[in-house]
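Worked example 2:
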Amino acid sequence: MDSTPSPSSSSPFDLVSSALGRYIPRGAAAAAAGPADAQGEPAARQAVPDPADGGQEQILGVVNLDRDLRITRCNLAAPVFEGLDVAAGSPFVDLLPPGDVPTVTRRLRQVLETGEAHVARIQRLRRGDGSELVVSMSILPAAMPQEGLTVSLIAMARRLHLYAAETAIGTSLDIGETAQSLAKSLLAWGDVAAVDLDFAVWTGEGVTGQAQGRIRLRRAALVPDRAWPDGYVTPGDDLPSDASRLLAQAVRRNDAPQAIVIPPEAVERVLGSPRVMRALVPGERSAGVACIPLVLDGTPPVVLGVAEVWRRADAPFRDSELFDLQELVARTAHHIDLARQHQREHTQVLALQRRLLPRSGGGTIEIASIYQPATPDSAGVGGDWVNSFPLPDGRTALVVGDVVGHGLGAAATMGQLSMEARALLSAGLAPDEVLEHLDETVSLLDDSEAGLAAGYSALGSTCCIALYDPVSHHVALSSAGHLPPVLVSPDGQAGTLEVRPHPGLGAEFALREPFDVHTFGAPPGSLLALYTDGLVEDPAVSIDEGIGRLADAVSTVHPWDSLQQAARHVVSALAPARQRDDVTLLLARMIGYRKGDTATWRLPARDDAPARARAQVSALLRRWRTRDDTRDNVLLLVSELVTNAVRFATGPITVRLIRAGHGLLCEVGDTGKGRPLLSRGGLLDDGGRGLHIVHRLTTRWGVRWTDTGKVVWAKVAR
């Protein structure tokens, strides 16, 4: 086999081969003629230093494969690789333990197909004498696709493996990934490695010293990846209670966490029941296991879980290996606890995020929403939020926001802004007025003493508020630095709404401008899309092109399509493959009231206005076949509201009656700006008696302000 790289070649095989001399210890060349000579005949076997003994620095080797995964050439000159059968034309998978063949083959094929390298996989290789060598294996695509693959191998000393493992395990705050990294590192000492965590650790809850035998374990990681027999516990499964209790007792002898080794001949006797044997013993019964507790230092020490390393019967654990296992687990237990804390924060933030998602839109509008978090390095959930809720006066509020940052600081700000927006909108404020309040809130939260999280700033957060009136079929919208909504008309024409750009919330005083209110028609069948930038931002395209793609995708939604299913389809079609930010989408299909369920009258502000209003409303209620007692209450209510409008306001008066569900909604609009208030006077006090009557006749009433005045609304049960 040719192991001499061409000076002019720049393939991965040749680049790695050219560096081998720097990794082979001096004096080893004479003893390292290579695993095969130029004719492919095995070289004379010599004593091979075991990297587990720590007497060898890490050694690098390289193997080239064709597209059929057969060896074409290699450079494995270091003594540590002796005994590996790497003859030209032999399948590379012949070097693998049988249980690892499917997984490694899948990885090799994946690199061939995608051209993306697979780096630093801890892998065991079989020597001809049956012994095994643990290496760090990287799979690299060749310079030309038709040339196949290059596989680089690093055989590491055990002490160096401890260092490398500890470094790798601390790179993720995901508890499953952290446990999986630990299990992969433990595989260097055995055939199967598993990590079982206390259920409280898995869910992010606090863990304290527990009474012996009270631990509940869930499997968090298992390597290698292969098909396991029925009944064997795999990641995500809870261990049987007997197995959890047994492992807890084993590693907490005399109430002190200790590592133990169960030799092959004692496994069946110690585990006892066949059910526990099926759950814990991987395949061959003639295997021993080392159980090492993951201990968090403290008084008393807290056991987070148990790491288990299984080994075949002909390779018992040496004391030095048990010490290495204990050292690795001890060094990395705090990473498990950091992941636990992160999981707790993630759960809290996600619960808040889900709490803000719309539940339903009522009978006048259909709502669907998608929230798809990215995988940031903080709490796993960002500051995107959407909300929709019916207002007491029959309108529906649609709100979408994007709070700067991730984690608890962003989540706390997100929750506060969302609840504040809902309260202000329910109180009758217009969208621009609500944004003014939110702008002030963000500025106050940025104060170092009043901030929600140390070092966190929400300045620059964005928000868009839309109010849908199901009677007039109009939407009033205000935006603070948010991307423009997309509106699809009933005939399928889609486009972005022209919204004047405005700085985000909390902008400097010099940059602040009044928020605009944009009003546009949304006839029944219209579809409105509100979203955050994570849905349309893609490094490969401009933001305008991303918004255009969203408009095209939303325009394909058919009026008969399930809106939630359509929202999922839009997100799957547009969300970037490598999602860097949260993705949020809110779709609202406008339905409105039927024409026969509403009536509107305009009356002059004269003394006869109450009588004219009663006559018009009475005739309508008869057509609606309203009960006599309800009709009397509505007539009295309309009379009082119109009388107040004539007495305290000027200009024309608008009366609107809406039949909604099991109630009637009555609205009286005028040009006055004052807020009607219930008086605290006595029975003989004339002022405010009309509002007391309104209060007793209705289930709810309130005020909202318009550009020309105000509207007093009230609900009456039918």
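The radius of gyration is 36 Å. The chain has a mean pLDDT of 78.
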